[in-house]
Amino acid sequence: MERAIARIDLGAVRANCERLRAELGEARLCAVVKADGYGHGADAVAEAALAGGASSFAVATAGEARLIGRRFQHVPLLTMGALGVEELDMVLAAGSEVAVWGEDFRAVLADRARASGRPARVHLKFDSGMGRLGTFDPDEVLALARACDADPHLKPAGVWTHFATADEPDEDEGYFFEQLDRFEPVAAAVGAEFPGITVHAANSAAVFRSERSHFDMARCGVAIYGLDPFQDDPRSRGLEPALSLRSYVAAVKRFPAGQSAGYGRRWRAAEDTWVGVVPLGYGDGVRRALSGDCDVLVGGRRYPLVGTISMDNLTIDLGSETEVEPGAEAVLIGRQGEEEIRAEEIAARLATINYEVTCGVTARVPRVPGEGR
């Protein structure tokens, strides 16, 4: 019996990509598989995304580019993050396209592309309001595109931006469209001078938020994993959660009233009860902050997590009478019977976002890909 597994429904990933492709119409789908596929396992997820209609991949780091580039040599790949000089060689060897937003880096990239023996394809990043990587200056974007075109070792391949509030339609309705208003003329100017360049801006939230943001391609991360970009029910948007986190009940113990469980004795049985011990903890990504504020599914029922979560174990209150026996499956994220605990629920309890929950499932939990859960 596995102590813990993260079961990945590749059929759900494929279906989610098909759903996004239908939403995008003529625009292409770029599957974002950074952070080990948002904790789902990048390699298997990338394969499923292709089967669902994705036509390219995006990652953030040089190491991620090497992993995906080696496995999918004939699929376009964009490395979106900042890169050091040493990392550039790795990214170019992986066949990845590169994000550029300043002349100094463009010159270094040209030098490394010359040394690699093949031109580097460049995506020019305009900061329309995210306030992170990218240039705020529209004229600099066009100047960089011209400099890339004039250099035999570079080729302008894309112009792009990223939204700060696409996933917050209620709180910041105006800012999302302000960013669109800033980006559109930049994209139009670059596109007019360099026909065929790929214009892209939309993340998962923007895909559902406004067709105006779709342009030539959308970069979707959370939605391909069946996580709702608005922290709501993903099925309301036709998305199916792909990851479930499962363990088992290792022990069932009778607790007299007053008996405590876990470090610090922060929970004590109010009355005689049964307690189940599940061999899963913050070493696996079950955040300690969930102590006393989470449920676990066993036998299709919710049981409250009690006591302090430790690195390797947690405890659940099974009630004064129980039929639960050691060996019973325990589900922390996923469906069991008619009950379901979604990543969005966990995120709400932690005051965070669903993809931090899945990214937080640690490497010691095996990812087990399959079809269905």
Which structural traits does this protein have?
single chain; 373 residues; alpha/beta; TIM Barrel; Lyase, Ornithine Decarboxylase, Chain A, domain 1; 2 domains; eight-stranded parallel β-sheet; 18 strands; 24% strand; elongated
Give an account of the 3D structure.
The protein is α/β, with parallel strands linked by helices and 373 residues long. It has 2 domains: 10-227, Alanine racemase (TIM Barrel); 243-341, Lyase, Ornithine Decarboxylase, Chain A, domain 1, CATH 2.40.37.10. The protein has helices at 10-24, 34-38, 42-51, 62-71, 85-93, 103-116, 138-150, 173-193, 204-209, 343-350, 354-359, and strands at residues 5-9, 28-32, 56-59, 77-79, 97-100, 120-125, 154-160, 198-200, 217-220, 243-248, 251-255, 273-278, 295-298, 301-306, 314-319, 329-336, 339-341, 367-370. Strands 1, 10, 11, 12, 13, 14, 15, 16, 17 and 18 form a 10-stranded mixed β-sheet that branches. α1 crosses α3 and α4 runs parallel beside α5 (85-93). The longest helix is centred in the middle third of the chain and has 21 residues, at 173-193. The protein is elongated, with a radius of gyration of 24 Å. It starts with a strand and ends with a strand. The model has no long low-confidence stretch (mean pLDDT 96).
Number of helices: 11
Domain count: the total is 2
Shape: elongated
How far apart the termini lie comes to 17 Å
Helix content: 25-40%
Which whole number gives the mean pLDDT?
Answer: 96
CATH topology call of the largest domain: TIM Barrel
SSE ordering: EHEHHEHEHEHEHEHEHEEEEEEEEEHHE
Overall CATH architecture of the largest domain = Alpha-Beta Barrel
Radius of gyration: 24 Å
Q: What is the CATH C level class of the largest domain, in words? A: Alpha Beta
Structural class: alpha/beta
Poorly predicted sequence stretches spanning 5 or more consecutive residues: none
